[in-house]
Every structure is written in C-alpha cells, then in structure tokens.
Amino acid sequence: MTDSSISAAMRAAVGVELARQVSHPVSASDIRRWALAVYWPEPAPQLFVSEEYARRTVHRGIVAPEEFNPFAWSCAETWTRNPEAVSDPNDPDNTEIQAGVPGPGLTFQLNGGMSVEYGDRMRPGDVITGSRCLGPYTEREGRLGLMLFSTAEETWTNQSGRLVKRTVSTLIRY
Amino acid sequence: MQTATSGDKVGIGDEIGPFTRETGFANWNRYAAVNYEFVPIHMDDEAGRAAGYPTAFGMGNLQWSYLHNALRAWMGDSGRIVSLSCQFRGANTKGMTVTARGVVTGVEKADGAVTATVDVWTEAADGSRLAPGKAVVRFG
Fold this sequence. Notes:
- The structure holds 2 protein chains of 2 kinds.
- Chain A is of the alpha+beta class.
- Chain A has 2 domains: about 10-25 and about 70-174, Roll (Thiol Ester Dehydrase, Chain A), CATH 3.10.129; about 30-65, no CATH class.
- Helices cover about 20% and strands about 35% of the residues of chain A.
- Chain A has helices spanning about 10-15, 30-40, 45-50, 50-55, 95-100, and strands spanning about 15-20, 75-80, 110-120, 130-140, 145-155, 165-174.
- A 6-stranded antiparallel β-sheet of chain A has the order 2-1-4-5-6-3.
- In chain A, a hairpin with a 2-residue loop joins strand 4 and strand 5 (about 145-155).
- Chain A is elongated.
- Chain B has a single domain (about 5-140), classed as Thiol Ester Dehydrase, Chain A.
- Chain B has a 5-stranded antiparallel β-sheet.
- In chain B, strand 3 (about 95-110) and strand 4 (about 115-125) form a beta hairpin.
- In chain B, about 45% of the residues are buried.
- At the A-B interface, helix 2 and strand 3 of A face helix 1, helix 4 and strand 2 of B.
- Chain B: This is MaoC/PaaZ C-terminal domain-containing protein.
- Chain B: Belongs to the enoyl-CoA hydratase/isomerase family.
- Chain B: InterPro entries: HotDog_dom_sf (IPR029069), MaoC-like_dom (IPR002539).
- Chain B: Pfam families: MaoC_dehydratas.
C-alpha cells in the first residue's frame, strides 16, 4: 500500500471552520438562469420563471430550485480561516490551503457525493449565509491507486436565520 | 411516470422519472456558467484523459440537479424534498445519455402529511448506475 496522504497537521485541522460567506441578494434572474441551465434543452418549469404562475402555487411566488447556488461568481462578504492564502477551487490542495495546513499534494480531485437536508426554499431577495467546516479524512485503494476522501459540512441560513440547507460533501483526491 | 401531485396517490413501487439528457459540452458549459464551475476536466478532453477518463466528463453537481429535476417532476409544486443524498460512482463522459430515475421504497402517513422514501439514481444508456442515492419527500 502506498504511503498515507493524511498528515498529523491535516488530522489536527478536522472540525475547524474553513470559510464563511454571505451572498448578494438572490435575484429572479439568477434563479431563471439556473433553471434554464439545468433543464436545457427543455424549458424550465414555470415555478422558477413565471411570477404570475408561482403566485398561484403553495409557494406564493418564485422559489429557487433546491440545489441553486447563490454564491457562484461572487459573494457580498467572504471570511476565510487563512486570509493570506490564495484559494483556487481547481487546486486539489484547496481544502488544506483554506485550513492553513500543508495539503497532500495530490494531482486530481473529484466530487465523491453529497448528502443534504433541506429547510426553507430560497427566494428572490434572500441573502444567504454559508459556513463551511472541515470533516474527517479517510483513505481507500481505488482503480487509480490510493484515494483520499475528505468531507466538509456546510450550513446555509437565510436572512431570518432559518436553515436553508445542511450539506455534507465528499471530495476524492488521487 | 405518474405525477404525485398529492401524497394520497403515493405508493411503494411508484416510479420517478425518467429525466433524460444527451450530455456533452452543450450541457456542461451552460451549467459551468451558472455555477462558476470552470474546471479543466469538464471543459477539455485532454484534461479528462489526464485524469484517467476517455474524454472530458460532466459535473457531479449537474447529475445532482438531474436527480432534483426528476423528483420535482414527480412530486409537483406542492411536494417538498426533505433530504437527498447520492454518491458519484461513475463518470458522465462526453456523448453519454444520462437518465435520472427513482422508485418509492417506503410511505408513512402522520399528522396529515405523507412522507415517501425514494431510491434515486442516474444511469447510463446500458443501465449502469452513475450516481445512486436516497431521497425523502414530504407532501402536506
């Protein structure tokens, strides 16, 4: 078996808050574009694009698809644990860079999966706050060699402090 | 597919989906543009091959959306996704047909609400599962 990629510094960082961000107010246009992209080439459902239709539903107005990301492109406020570091989501060491510890230096990263609990729906005008914490590390032999699995727990709340969603995501690196 | 516009119609064995897409850069670029997900493995065949796959491959997050799309089409506007989980086990490489499906495995009725447990997954054209998972959906 290849040497472990999990250092003592990485283990010690488990549980720390990595980043916190506050979204710009969600716009109807953001929601419409998201829905158009994920349903393409079919039209997006009326609930996401027509205020007139959405008003007549139980939601009483447009809501965002549950998986909508209000933090894409830019945020109104961002706090990171390690503000000196340059954060690049394409860098496989990005998690540890945010935690302020040396990363494992692996070459590739994949989205391993996620588990989400949903609360309030997101709506136009909402301001969403997200807090992301580092979860535990594990390793497993895979088709492409020893794979590093790490998790992160992210909690989103809206401007009323109500839960929007809680996500545990798994990152696979090799 | 039966659309469960109210919980009273939900039963074990009910099928969710299919929600099907021919996949490639036309889907992935649109998704990258809304999720700011401009990652070389999703945009460049060479980067996909360097990562061990025959071509570039689609975002797990987009399959995640396809699972939501299938659930939303089934439950209608009045249903609520309480939770959803999935594992990304197979790559959605260029040119694949990806289908999101599901089947109801449990139904509970309490306090005027109906809660359905659903096995969900995305699959390739040969039926192999790319992203299996579980959902809980509530009506009422």
